[in-house]
Amino acid sequence: MKAKRLITLLACAFLAVAMLAGCKDKDGSSAGSAPTESTTGATKKTKINVGVIKGPSGIGMVNLMEDAANGATANNYTFSVASSPEEISNKIANKELDLATPPTNLAAALYNKTSGKVMMLAASTKGVLYIMENGETVQKVSDLKGKTIYATGKGANPEFILNYILSKNGLDPKKDVKIEFRSENDELAILIANGTAKVALVPEPFVTSIKTQKPELRVALDMTEEWEAASGGESRLLMGCVIGRKEFVEQNPEAVAAFLTEYKASIEKATTDLDKTANLCAKYEIIPKAPIAKAAIPRCNLTYIDGNDMINQIKGYFEVFFAAEPKSVGGALPDDAFYYNPQK
What is the pTM of this model? Predict the structure, then answer.
């Protein structure tokens, strides 16, 4: 029964993993309209269609969404909330969206797929992956030797990140540990709840949801910190970003600059005003339960990094993914034209 209650809560808490069809606009307007300028008093506002994914990557946007709903933004934003990265990727490729918040490696893949028609504007989310343990045996990465690690994401971010960190700590992912992959995080949660999985690689907000039901489970390792240690500080674990259609960015430089200023402020509010942000997460269906959102936000590692800092910190990350599986970044490392850098 405890496992059933857990899966019900998790299904509600992290709808981002559900492959639901369609997205919905939170201000009631169409997401497919071309960018236009509207006049409010003497101020012209550029219409911008923004795609946001449910889950951690959407948390940093909710304060901007609320400001837009109150008419307190420099641009006229239409926000489309999607359940999967693929939804917004397809829409930005088809020019239905101007800006979007996909995973960073998907942004690189989209750049290659569209022959350079998107740009990475800023990194917005560091890592959201953690090693959870039912016990006290895992204090450092080398303690994972000989253990079975349950995880999701075979052939995707979680597998590549885990393998990189294991290898950099002297462990062979194929020999020194056993990795049991599952297709869904809700299945993973059941295995943790019933004691089958003693060690697991879990993303937020699942970590928070699981600990709500099983407080005895321990967050043993923060994979964001472990990545930085493994890379010697040469790269960062940057899993989420905001991208823009190159055509739109080049045609609307002032509007894009205003958006980035407002987006950065929205992220800062999310990290400092947990109560308001958690309530907005529920309001805009980013994470439906405000208490889960409030508890999860500190471990979602929201950030804002742009310009030269973004470029220097993300290139090593892409190199790791390319070495593991070239298709994960679209078959080629993105060149410098991928990075929006007004500091040049």
Answer: 0.84
